Amino acid sequence: MTDLKELRGKIDDIDRKIVELFQERMEIVSGVAKYKKEKGLPVLNSIREGELIEKNINYLKNKELTPYLKEFYIKLMDLSKDYQRLQIDKAKEGINVCFQGTTGSYSQEALFEYFGSDATSYPVKEFEDVFKKLKDDNISYGVLPIENSSTGAINEVYDLLRKYGLYIVGNMTLKINHNLMAIEGAKLEDIKTVYSHPQAFKQCSEFLKDKGLELIGYHNTAVSAELVSEKKDKTMAAIGSKKAAEVNNLKIIKNNINNDDSNYTRFIIIGKTLETSDINDAISIVFSSPNKVGALYDSLGIFKKNNLNMIRIESRPVVGKPWEYFFYIDFEGDINNEHVKEAIDYIQNNSSYFKFLGNYKK
């Protein structure tokens, strides 16, 4: 009779072989991840998984083990998918990413939050410059603010999304804490002029009102801080992040001057190609309805018909056509879902203009 020690020894030998084969399998999985990323293919392939399980069950001589083998392969493929996603995410580390502003801006903060500190950030002056820069092969992605919880949509970015043939591949939300900053030695009563982005002025209007301050709009909060630092004038101040104050050696005169303490900005990540993944659950489109009775109503109704949750809708005027609008819609869904396909097909076939902007993780 075989003793327990001998049986365990045989199991150990088999386990060593399993480890070697597992490592070999995962190395091949890494190659699959690279291919899928290059081709924009989703990680999940349900048909392939079903076929693989069925094929390997047929190799099994002891059919009593069928449910166990099936469970084993389900878990193995879950691990493979997780590893593929990890490899795809790692491929984004250390890449070149463009943002509007300068060192210490909220956009740069969002960039590092999303891509990690290994990403190389490239600052540009205007929102449109981010789109233009992505035409450069050296830049992989761009980061742009699109919506603030206090002041609403950033219309220029919506217009640029339609103008350029780029895609939304991700988004993230950043808490915004605005601070009033000036050079060392300056006090609140010394300040006569404040520089910042117009959005920041809106978000801090309660603090700024009735103080007799001259507000000068600048294209970025961090660039405003840079200007104040260079001028070394005690009568000048900027509104921006704590990081902007640190980078420019400015003193924060007043912390957190937002109207709303729950002040958040949503940033979108734009890329050159459409990126798909089985974990994507948000879709963005833009369309224009023909000028006839019920056209817009019918297009919006297709979401309810297909049980799709619309997250937000924004309208922008069609230049040169008074009272006609482009409608930007974000809704929950995956491009491979049949209900999503039906909704998109309907809107595309019943619109005077249509553009698919992206499918990404909400």
TrEMBL record:
<dbReference type="GO" id="GO:0009094">
    <property type="term" value="P:L-phenylalanine biosynthetic process"/>
</dbReference>
<dbReference type="InterPro" id="IPR002912">
    <property type="entry name" value="ACT_dom"/>
</dbReference>
<protein>
    <recommendedName>
        <fullName>Bifunctional chorismate mutase/prephenate dehydratase</fullName>
        <ecNumber>4.2.1.51</ecNumber>
    </recommendedName>
</protein>
<dbReference type="GO" id="GO:0004106">
    <property type="term" value="F:chorismate mutase activity"/>
</dbReference>
<dbReference type="InterPro" id="IPR036979">
    <property type="entry name" value="CM_dom_sf"/>
</dbReference>
<dbReference type="InterPro" id="IPR045865">
    <property type="entry name" value="ACT-like_dom_sf"/>
</dbReference>
<dbReference type="Pfam" id="PF00800">
    <property type="entry name" value="PDT"/>
</dbReference>
<dbReference type="Pfam" id="PF01817">
    <property type="entry name" value="CM_2"/>
</dbReference>
<keyword id="KW-0028">Amino-acid biosynthesis</keyword>
<keyword id="KW-0963">Cytoplasm</keyword>
<feature type="domain" description="ACT">
    <location>
        <begin position="284"/>
        <end position="362"/>
    </location>
</feature>
<feature type="domain" description="Prephenate dehydratase">
    <location>
        <begin position="96"/>
        <end position="272"/>
    </location>
</feature>
<comment type="pathway">
    <text>Metabolic intermediate biosynthesis; prephenate biosynthesis; prephenate from chorismate: step 1/1.</text>
</comment>
<dbReference type="GO" id="GO:0046417">
    <property type="term" value="P:chorismate metabolic process"/>
</dbReference>
<keyword id="KW-0413">Isomerase</keyword>
<dbReference type="InterPro" id="IPR002701">
    <property type="entry name" value="CM_II_prokaryot"/>
</dbReference>
<dbReference type="InterPro" id="IPR011279">
    <property type="entry name" value="Chorismate_mutase_GmP"/>
</dbReference>
<dbReference type="InterPro" id="IPR008242">
    <property type="entry name" value="Chor_mutase/pphenate_deHydtase"/>
</dbReference>
<feature type="site" description="Essential for prephenate dehydratase activity">
    <location>
        <position position="265"/>
    </location>
</feature>
<keyword id="KW-0456">Lyase</keyword>
<dbReference type="Pfam" id="PF01842">
    <property type="entry name" value="ACT"/>
</dbReference>
<keyword id="KW-0057">Aromatic amino acid biosynthesis</keyword>
<comment type="function">
    <text>Catalyzes the Claisen rearrangement of chorismate to prephenate and the decarboxylation/dehydration of prephenate to phenylpyruvate.</text>
</comment>
<keyword id="KW-0584">Phenylalanine biosynthesis</keyword>
<dbReference type="InterPro" id="IPR036263">
    <property type="entry name" value="Chorismate_II_sf"/>
</dbReference>
<dbReference type="GO" id="GO:0004664">
    <property type="term" value="F:prephenate dehydratase activity"/>
</dbReference>
<comment type="pathway">
    <text>Amino-acid biosynthesis; L-phenylalanine biosynthesis; phenylpyruvate from prephenate: step 1/1.</text>
</comment>
<dbReference type="InterPro" id="IPR001086">
    <property type="entry name" value="Preph_deHydtase"/>
</dbReference>
<keyword id="KW-0511">Multifunctional enzyme</keyword>
<dbReference type="GO" id="GO:0005737">
    <property type="term" value="C:cytoplasm"/>
</dbReference>
<feature type="domain" description="Chorismate mutase">
    <location>
        <begin position="1"/>
        <end position="88"/>
    </location>
</feature>
